[in-house]
Structure prediction request, 616 residues.
Amino acid sequence: MATTSQRVALPPVEQSWLARLFDWKPFLVVLCMAPCVGLLVVFLTYPLGLGIWLGFTDTRIGRPGEWIGLENYISLLQDDTYLMAVWWTFFYTFVATILKFVLGLWLALLLNHHLPFKSFIRAIILIPWIVPTVLSAIAFWWIYDPQFSIISYVLVDKLGLFDQYIDFLGDTWNARWSLIAANVWRGIPFVAICLLAGLQTISPSLYEAAMIDGASSWQRFWHITLPMLMPILAVVLTFSVIFTFTDFQLVYAITRGGPANSTHLMATLAFQRAIPGGQLGEGAAIAVSMIPFLVFATVFSYFALARRKWQQGGKDD
Amino acid sequence: MTEAAATTAPTSVTERSGPIEWASLPRRMVTVYLPLACFVVVLLFPFYWMTITTFKSNEELYDYKNYNPFWVSSPTLANINKLLFQTDYPSWLVTTMTVAVVSTALSIFASVLAAYAIQRLRFKGSQWVGLAIYLAYLVPPSILFIPLATMVFQLGLFDSPMALILTYPTFLVPFCTWLLIGYFKSIPYELEECALIDGATRLQILWKITLPLAVPGLISAGIFAFTLSWNEFIYALAFIQSAEKKTVPVAVLTQLVEGDVYHWGSLMAGALLGSIPVAIFYSFFVEYYVSSLTGAVKE
Prediction:
């Protein structure tokens, strides 16, 4: 081996120092990681730290702030609008996530049947998720119009279920449920397609064995589908929770936090205070106050992933 | 119910030879096709409504008594015409396209190198770097936009598309890197070993062997990044001020609403025309979308 390699490499290629540098692993690693790490450190890590720092200052647009300690947080704790936003953010996340998962799982189970035009159906179902959120939110805004809502038209004029047109966005709770409906509408495709991918990895022989043993369809779902789907479900759930919790576009496009600030999420309230309001410090404090929940969700996600690896390594099947 | 299932199940098990199809057609109608049809109708209705509103004239739009709202009796291009020639819509479209393409290219470049380093060069601590990048994906723009706004202002990039091109990679790079790490994993390492023995340098291997094999992965990452940047809203809302430099999602929402009068026809036309490029793009690459979406989650 040594002799052949010597013979083959006889003309010792005079490698320039540059070529040798590019084949030197530590240099190559640094070179390859530089663009990615550079971008992320400058535009992600640094702003994250800067945001936390801004939360402790009274910075306004065009005026550098001074350190004021916890003052922003203390005043926020006495701010009813903020407390309402926190409560509503949790409620929105909780209800929307549950609905998205129940309906998304149902849709995934439906798509897992043998259907004609299956890939076509799968393709059109993903459309709500592909189209820019704000643009579909504008369509919802129009659907929720107080005077010309098509839902009101059908319910009142065609079916006669109500006496008068529904004021979707003018009433606090109507507006809240309308936003949840729009969020669920947009989230279902993502959940369904991800869970469908999970469903397709479940071996049909498990179901056949269960059927021979006389398991009902509910038992098959509860004892086979759900446990087998759990790892992927946990990851999709974490993603969905994080992105619903920090949602901005839907609320900003449909209600802008109204009526009377009752539908402000923490993200929209932070924007409202920081950019049009000019109170960068206060806005940053609101945004930073989302971090504890996100850390909690991320840690949860990490352990869900770790558990999956353990499952894969521990058991072959 | 359970008894009936118990009595019918054995016969069907003995008869069938293919995949399980135990339900009769009427039953399948009610349990599968009907709910599925409902899902499809509900999921697509807003787009239908958007499209039909775009082509309605104003008198038809606000008159449900004399016209059937679910159909257009006399389609008109007035709304699209107004959008294209009386607003800055073409320049919004160009800005959005430029920002999406450039930030996607930048992100793919950074991600390919990073994914290659993490997955193939395997330096000490590469796992932790991979984890850090995964965590970076979970940092939402809603938290970052305020400090980024101050940075953008200090760098003198406020109201410039450059601000968007530089900030979009914050959510594109983690996603693409993550996707490509998974993709590189699926390429046999032996191919690279052969090339190394033949005396190729690492960069030659990346350029001539790994990248050509990773083309499907690159396409997945690219189209996903493009869609994500087309979709982006909060940075574009916060960093761009002048009307003609806005991106389509922001401009439709902020420029087409004049005071309290909503011109629903042109608003819907704006939403429709803004969705079409993504929809066309999507229709060409559906399979890549599905694979990258599910691949990213499985990884």
Notes: The mean pLDDT of chain B is 83.
